[in-house]
Protein: Probable membrane transporter protein
Amino acid sequence: MRKLLLLALVGLGAQLVDGSLGMAYGVTSTTLLLAIGTNPAAASATVHLAEIGTTLVSGIAHWRFGNVDWKVVLKIGVPGAIGAFAGATVLSNISTEVAAPLMAIILLTLGLYVLIRFTFQGLPKGQLGKPLRKRFLAPLGLVGGFVDATGGGGWGPVGTPAILASGRLEPRKTIGSIDTSEFLVAIAASLGFILGIGSENIDYGWALALLLGGVIAAPIAAWLVRHIPPRVLGAAVGGVIVLTNTRSLLRSDWIDAPDGVRYAFYGVIYAAWAAAIVYSVLQYRKNIADDQRIIAEAEAAATGDVPDDKDKATANV
Structure:
């Protein structure tokens, strides 16, 4: 019972992050399941079954708040489903000894990407309103779906930053569209796992616990996406993913690092993680101050209350 409650809380927290950031539900949930000793394929299958419900509720909530571009959903979601089915089939036929460290590497890479991306770059903007082409979204969906199924997460970390980097879709619609299209990915991945490992190897109680927590959080996250600073949240979530999967990798049969080496790695990660969060907060506050200054200067120019050269020279003395 305690484990189910913990899973429900993890599902709630992961969906809050995913719904407001456009990523990390699968990565966060799968990381926890692996940490408690779940088979990699079963962990990914459990999470994707839960995601069928959470992505449905999340998509409806994002649609109600006007956060969805349906053209983007279809162009990336269908190829994503194909990639997810293929990824689930591949993972189902890999031995646990190989799959566990391999999944840890995939999740660690995604975590590093999320941490670095949001710490140093934040959310890029530019070229808003220009259409996103199918030749860009289709390959992105295929790769994202495959990584998502094999890594237990990755649809958001692959799709969200790529679309944001294009600067053609505003952040809230990018997040809403990625979350909504993940419904197709979750269905295809779940089908692939059921065919690959059999339904008897999936813990439906765990999937239900993750689902309940995610369903509660989904509408809250869709509302928060307009208010929460994604830069800070991205740095925080990225650090959790990096730390947890570094632990899994160092303890795997591939490396089996001694305690001293593992603790040294943990110390470095903790320090870098704390620095990333502090830097993200400072940059976020700086951006807010810069935006306020620009607005003030624009308002002053509109009212003609702009200091002349003499006033500027006096102010600089």
